[in-house]
Inverse folding.
């Protein structure tokens, strides 16, 4: 999906690959970080195909920067509208 980034780098050995995903995969298996479930905190667990270390990754790191930026703009605009509304009441 375009909204998500699947690039992933091992926190231990630095190997770069792709997070496992559903659907057709064009990525070679040796570059796939296998999904291993998630932690109690909601972090996603992926297993490095190079050193077999299972590490937690924040789910937010997979969200495309454009989506994060859009969300940020919406929050800022909401604050501006809120502040203006408060100023008209004072
Ligand atoms: Zn590794």
């Amino acid at each position: 999906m375009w909204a998500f980034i699947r690039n992933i780098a091992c926190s231990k050995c630095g190997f770069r690959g792709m997070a496992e995903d559903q659907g057709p995969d064009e990525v070679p298996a040796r570059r796939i970080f296998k999904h291993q479930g998630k932690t109690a905190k909601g972090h996603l667990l992926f297993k490095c195909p190079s050193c077999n270390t299972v590490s937690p990754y924040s789910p937010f790191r997979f969200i495309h920067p454009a989506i994060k930026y859009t969300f940020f703009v919406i929050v800022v605009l909401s604050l501006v509208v809120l502040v203006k509304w408060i100023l008209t009441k004072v």
Remarks:
- The chain has a mean pLDDT of 88.
